[in-house]
Amino acid sequence: MNLKTIVMVASMIALPVMAQEEKPVYLDTNKPIEQRVEDALQRMTLEEKVALIHAQSKFSSAGVPRLGIPENWMSDGPHGIRAEVLWDEWFGAGWTSDSCTAYPALTCLAATWDPAMSALYGKSIGEEARYRKKNVLLGPGVNIYRTPLNGRNFEYLGEDPFLTSRMVVPYIKGVQSNGVAACVKHFALNDQELNRGTVNVNVDDRTLNEIYLPAFKAAVQEGGAWAIMGAYNQYKNQHCCENQYLLNDILKGKWKFDGVVVSDWGGVHNTMEAIKNGMDMEFGTWTNGLNWGASNAYDNYYLAKPYLDLIKQGKVGTDELNDKARRVLRLIFRTNMAKEQHYGSFASPEHALAGRTIAENGIVLLQNNKNLLPLDLKKYKKILVVGENATKRMTIGGGSSSLKVKKEVSPLEGIKARIGNDATVTYVEGYASPAVAEQDVKGAKAQVREINLDAMREEAVKAAKEADVVIFIGGLNKNEGQDSEGADRKGLELSYGQDALISALAAANPNLAVVIISGNAVSMPWVKQVPAIVEAWYEGSEAGNALAAVLMGDVNPSGHLPFTFPVKLQDNGAIALGAYPGTAEQETYKEGLFVGYRWADSKKIKPLFPFGYGLSYTTFAWSKPTADKNEMSADGTMTFSINVKNTGTREGKELVQLYVSDLKSSLPRPVKELKGFSKVTLAPGEEKTVSITIDKAALSYYDDTKGEWIAEPGKFEAIFAASATDIRGKVPFELK
Ligand code: BGC
After folding, report:
1. Ligand 1 centroid distance, CA of 285 (Å)
2. Pocket test for ligand 1, best of 81, 86, 138 (most atoms within 8 A of CB)
3. Atom of ligand 1 at shortest distance to CA of 76?
4. For 323, which DSSP code?
5. Is 210 in the pocket of ligand 1 (CB under 6 A)?
6. 51 Cβ closer than 6 Å to some ligand 1 atom
7. Is 542 in the pocket of ligand 1 (CB under 6 A)?
8. Measuring CA to CA, which residue among 523, 484, 521, 520 is closest to residue 502?
9. Residue 77 alpha carbon, nearest atom of ligand 1
């Protein structure tokens, strides 16, 4: 063929003709990303653009093969890099090289109250994603802990918008420092699993802005998140994955988000709405593969052929398509085609250590009468461990966050390894939950066994009478209806006869430490019968080692609760008002702003354990707080300080919380709201000054008539506290 024929053939097949170039701009990593995006976009056909914006497999979407632009590969999230699945299945692909590190659940991360832990988490999990060639991590999750029944609370960062915001930002930055996008989920108001695919959430604008949006806003504006996942539920009677108000007006309009809105899997329902209302990338749409999506289900996605047809029929223009394609190209140039390339690392000892460190910083000591903990191995020679959660694998199950791990040290293994020959450790199961089938294995069947809870309890009680000390390890698990995606819990209490078992153990042996493994609050009718209680969360690969280190005192606990533990379900605002669960179609957040401690404060309800609560093996003394001035100017700041001294005999970390109270306001406000915190490490006898600076944002409320944040001049109080109910000092001040 001579040159003339080549040009003729090229124009006949209607591809954009590329002139001979040295290096196309889109491939030139020295060029600004926006230039590369525009250059790539103008080279692409309509079909290639449409191919970019919907899935081609369960977890991937096409690149532009003709131009050498690579595919996007996503992975859950948020606690580790999910096992490879088959191209068009949820089931595992049976790889042997995809066993990851499981990091602690996000509730534990939140319980560290330490942004440095969040940065470590993000960096480490991002490295694992990068090594596994994923450029989008489906996490972190920042939905607010509205009730203790939400099956997915364990994947989120707790009840308070300020804490959640401070903790999400370093996670995102850490992940993205690896050239992997964090995909923050689920935007927005996906605060329960029950009816999640249908329910329309009614919430007033003020509550939306003050409680449910701040973490997403911080993720976008401070964390610089490159992706966000739309939620399954509806808001303003529109699905969140095609929601004009949330996606276009707020996220892309007000917040100037320039990344990609990814749908939750199966969250798109309508082509035109998805086109117009800000959905950029469609995943997981359920086609039946028969009469609908026969040849390739993915071609029948709402944002696939149906979109292309509408364009070709002239029913929609290409402005929206270009915007979506630009966003996806931007994502690719930020990750897989970024100037700086990263290679990551996987399931390494460093990652195990990172997970363990986070776990050790997040475990919460809830009660420690008679200083039962740390266990004195000189005194206690016969140690009995009771409870299914001492051996149950918690990295498996729970829905999309389920993991295939390289290792998972169970609590029993961790305790045995730590104690070695210093004492004898015996184990009795005590209770058991119904077995469930392996989530990721196609055709897997649950191994059915008979469970006789009475007999199991009797056996445990008998053993408890003979032991010097008993460690009960129970709580929730990842079965449906416990801490698991797809369903909510039915109540606050522990299942499988655990309450009766704990009481019986307490009667049999006064030296009882109860370890709760959960991602949710549980009721504790036996709280006065047991000396020691520990909330140990789901801790991932190093679970048992981290727990043993705390129980034996190698680590001084410093975790604090990121949500309220109510005495009973009725002590939760949404539940007390009958505002949960609503119907399959509608749910109204009648409690408004009064979520978690905001409700308990306003109704003067004493929680079982309050938000922000956690004990240490050492003691701390707090001085009177001070302020650098008496009043704040509208554009100024104020710094509040307090001295904290370690008055015990071992090193420890103390968490200083700063709440702000608006003493007189034209709108009703919570009694106080968290606006600052700082965790300090103190050697025995050491004293440090903790200073927290706030500006008027900490004093503001969202005025929904004006649609803006308002700081009303007047009198305020800065409240230093060790938990939402343990106030150590107040400083009055005025906003001028
Ligand atoms: C979950 C998401 C998850 C996705 C992919 C959905 O069911 O809600 O959080 O990332 O599945 O597994």
Report:
1. 12
2. 138
3. 10
4. H
5. no
6. no
7. no
8. 523
9. 10
pLDDT tens figures, 452-467: 999 999 999 999 999 9
Whole-number pLDDT of residue 717: 98
Closest CA to 731 of 643, 633, 624, 634: 624
Q: Which atom of ligand 1 sits closest to the CA of residue 400? A: 12
Letter string b/e over residues 341-375, b meaning 16 or more CB atoms within 10 A of that residue's CB: ebebebbbeebbebbbbbbbbbbbbbbbeeebbbb
Three-state secondary structure string covering 399-419: CCCCCCECCCCCHHHHHHHHH
Question: pLDDT band at residue 16, thresholds of 50, 70 and 90?
Answer: low
Inform me whether the pLDDT recorded for 9 exceeds 50. no
State the amino acid at position 580 in one-letter form: Y
Distance separating alpha carbons of residues 259 and 305, to the nearest angstrom: 24
Whole-number CA gyration radius for the chain: 27
Residue 601 catalytic? Answer: no
In this model, does residue 4 exceed pLDDT 80?
no
Q: Using a 6 Å cutoff on CB, does residue 76 contact ligand 1? A: yes
**Is residue 196 within 6 Å of ligand 1 at its C-beta?**
no
Quick one: pLDDT at residue 21?
73
Distance 265 CA to ligand 1 centre (A): 6
* Chain Cα centroid distance, residue 174: 15
Reduced to 3 states (helix: H, G, I; strand: E, B; else coil), residue 721 is strand
**Annotated catalytic residue, options 191, 264, 440, 662:** 264
**Please, which pLDDT band fits residue 173 given cuts at 50, 70 and 90?**
very high
What residue owns the CA closest to ligand 1's atom 12?
A: 400
**Which atom of ligand 1 lies at the shortest distance from residue 139's CA?**
10
Q: Which two tokens stand for residue 462?
A: 């008998």
Å from CA of 324 to ligand 1 middle: 21
265 lines ligand 1 (CB under 6 A): yes
As a whole number of angstroms, the distance between CA 691 and CA 42 comes to: 53
Best probe residue, ligand 1, of 265, 282, 485 (max atoms within 8 Å of C-beta): 265
Query: Among 72, 69, 83, which residue's Cα sits nearest to residue 40?
Result: 69
Report whether residue 159 contacts ligand 1, using a CB cutoff of 6 Å: no
For helices 411-419 and 543-551, angle between their N-to-C axes, nearest 10 degrees: 50
DSSP labels, 267-289: ----HHHHHHTT--BB------S
Is residue 263 a contact partner of residue 61, using CB atoms and an 8 Å limit?
A: no
pLDDT band at 289 (very low <50, low <70, confident <90, very high): low
Q: Region 477-494: what's the mean pLDDT?
A: 97
pLDDT in tens, 84-98: 999 888 889 999 999
Query: Taking a C-beta distance cutoff of 8 angstroms, is the pair 524, 608 a contact?
Result: yes
Q: In the structure encoding, which two tokens stand for residue 288, read together?
A: 């039946």
List of residues 6+ apart from 717 with CB closer than 8 A: 660, 661, 663, 672, 730, 731, 732, 733
Q: For helices 33-43 and 319-334, what crossing angle results, to 10°?
A: 130
Query: Which residues are CB-neighbours of 287 under 8 A, at least 6 positions away?
Result: 293, 297, 300, 301
Q: Cβ distance 318 to 312 under 8 Å? A: no
- Ligand 1 center to 169 CA (angstroms): 21
User: Which ligand 1 atom sits closest to the C-alpha of 196?
Assistant: 8
DSSP symbol at 651: -
Residue 446's pLDDT is: 84
The residue contributing the CA closest to ligand 1 atom 2 is: 264
Summarised one tens digit per residue, pLDDT across range 243-282 is 999 999 999 999 999 999 999 999 999 999 999 999 999 9
Reported pTM: 0.96
For residue 682, give both structure tokens: 């103190």
